[in-house]
Request: fold
Amino acid sequence: MRAVRRGLREGGAMAAARDPPEVSLREATQRKLRRFSELRGKLVAPGEFWDIVAITAADEKQELAYNQQLSEKLKRKELPLGVQYHVFVDPAEAKIGNGGSTLCALQRLEKLYGDKWNSFTILLIHSGGYSQRLPNASALGKIFTALPLGNPIYQMLELKLAMYIDFPLHMNPGILVTCADDIELYSIGEFEFIRFDKPGFTALAHPSSLTIGTTHGVFVLDPFDDLKHRDLEYRSCHRFLHKPSIEKMYQFNAVCRPGIFCQQDFAGGDIADLKVDSDYVYTDSLFYMDHKSAKMLLAFYEKIGTLSCEIDAYGDFLQALGPGATVEYTRNTSNVVKEGSELVEMRQRIFHLLKGTSLNVIVLNNSKFYHIGTTEEYLFYFTSDNSLKSELGLQSITFSIFPDIPECSCKTSCIIQSILDSRCSIAPGSVVEYSRLGPDVSVGENCIISGSYIPTKAALPAHSFVCSLSLKMNRCLKYSTMAFGVQDNLKKSVKTLSDIKLLQFFGVCFLSCLEIWNLKVTEELFSGNKTCLSLWTARIFPVCSSLSDSVTISLKMLNAVKNKSAFSLNSYKLLSIEEMLIYKDVEDMITYREQIFLEISLKSDLI
Reply:
């Protein structure tokens, strides 16, 4: 699991007179949220906000879903107005990574605006994945993940815009590149600003443990003579290391010696304190490139024509920067998901293109970086982690009709834009979003329920994941509900049918589950690539004519596995999650959410 990174550095002799770092962080975050709230639905003045906000999408279906949701948000005045919002889709049938998506976005900007975009401040949010580790975000996108915050509720898009609210005012024309599933919180001095005004690339840096550094980018900073410890420091970077080993961190002088207090909160519940005698590193989050650097990358992309391999915006762009960068990293493919034949050659061409470009680093010593990209992280931060709840003002119940839900000291349930009957019960540690639950519905601990309707008696076992999708099949509206365990690995794949016994569904051998459901092991059981067999591509989820029937049948198949009792799926049309996303009816899913919104609004007005 990817942990939260938190760095707290005391401010020298001034520390005693200042608020504690955690108080400063919370107050700075709340100020940004208030400022963004003031801009929602308002026409922003030139230079007051981003000129362009662009979101990347993996395919045309995702592009359509994103555009529909942006249109709804603008219609409901949930976003600042007078801004150009775009969705840029990757080329068809191509997996090009977020680096490739960045290049495509630059090309789209050039086509849309010509030379005009050389004076724009642009926010580019990478949201092109299928969110296989957090599937309730798969259909409508990670950047539209709902948060237990705000009225109307915030999604990740609004939170990103709020946390970056100060950036455009102090930024030269260029592009800020970020990802859809992380949150950066920071506090700096009252009269300080984060300035993106230097040529080349500029990245934010957060103090982190060496262990965290092995799964992120790590900066090798030039020596710093200032003995005072500040929340905000502008530093130059000698080189950038991408997911280095601890040994390499020491080898390349990335490790900073004692003199800082830094604490790490791990999502698994472990807490490792970096006290004054602990070594630490500075790790990455988002980065900015000035317009000149963006134009250089665009010219390169137009020269090569098409990409046939995955490029990492962090690993392949940033590792080429700084005076200490060397070409050796281009041959290291240990961190690459899919190694293409042209990958090394493409990396080397990017290295020689960017070699000599400066990498400036903005060190944020009182900052936090949260990643919410897995079911485990999602449940932890929304139900158990008091730090994020305090900093953002997250609520246990957000814009919902709900019964009295008991809270325990360690964790609570989280209800987001949902209607719950007063007689249903939700155990601590569970999240319910965009759903209706009737009487006699019992939800166990650590469950996720999304987009569902359960009107009749039902019991969801602890650690269940249930997410319903509207489908358009042969011009008819249908429904299907994916159901499995929150800890199931949907990405794990095997190459042959004989190996599917290595897959697990709700902690049970998948082969045993197929026997319980009376399904035969054939190639037709899986969609897509027949040499990449996984829970993601397994055709096991029934298609139904109503939303409630869809949830009921999928819960029966889930409970059958839990109780080891037979439940035949033979009579149903079955889809994989992969296919559900192909058939998804975005408009109907948005309509369902809107119906819940209107009913809650009406009842709130009557109270």
Observations:
- The CA atoms of residues 239 and 322 lie 5 Å apart.
- The first strand starts at residue 5 and ends at 7.
- The longest helix spans residues 586-606.
